[in-house]
């Protein structure tokens, strides 16, 4: 069931996530997620394998590592959203993004395959959010020691992708 998903109140997520929630433009969130799929795919397809293994500073991730992080985080955010939308009240742990990237060995992974994986994950994200009944958006749970609503997780997902694609555009290319 689909309806307009309003921007969450700051009380619906940890203060850290304000940077992501505020990065999401006003309007239909599902349309924003679909548009991001198109614009990010266009951006990523313009990047070569050689460019994808470069970082803008020695201590920073490569573009492949940034995209791996976006994919992993989106999976985690949507898994949290699914669990809370379905009424799961178990507290969920945080995750160490740097360790996830280190363990991924993604610099050895073909860039094209990583881009395709992002597209599949984003399509799955859109399908999940499109399928939620209206009352599910307001369900909440605890993740990383903070209470968060399903709609906040949807906005965090969109804002997180935007944050990192903006970094790729401004610092890597």
Structure notes:
The protein is mostly helical and 173 residues long. It has one domain: Up-down Bundle (Four Helix Bundle (Hemerythrin (Met), subunit A)), CATH 1.20.120. 58% of the residues lie in helices and 5% in strands. The protein has a two-stranded antiparallel ribbon with strand order 1-2. Strand 1 (140-143) and strand 2 form a beta hairpin. The longest helix has 23 residues, at 63-85. The protein is globular and about 45 Å long. The model has no long low-confidence stretch (mean pLDDT 96).
What key phrases describe this protein's structure?
mainly alpha, Four Helix Bundle (Hemerythrin (Met), subunit A), 58% helix, 5% strand
Strand order of the largest sheet: 1-2
Q: What percentage of amino acids are in beta strands?
A: under 5%
Oligomeric state, counting identical vs distinct chains: single chain
Q: Give average pLDDT, whole number.
A: 96
Structural class: mainly alpha
Radius of gyration: 16 Å
Give the strand tally: 2
Pattern of helices and strands: HHHHHHEEH
Runs in which pLDDT lies below 50 for 5 or more consecutive residues are none
The percent range for helix content is 55-70%
The dominant shape is globular
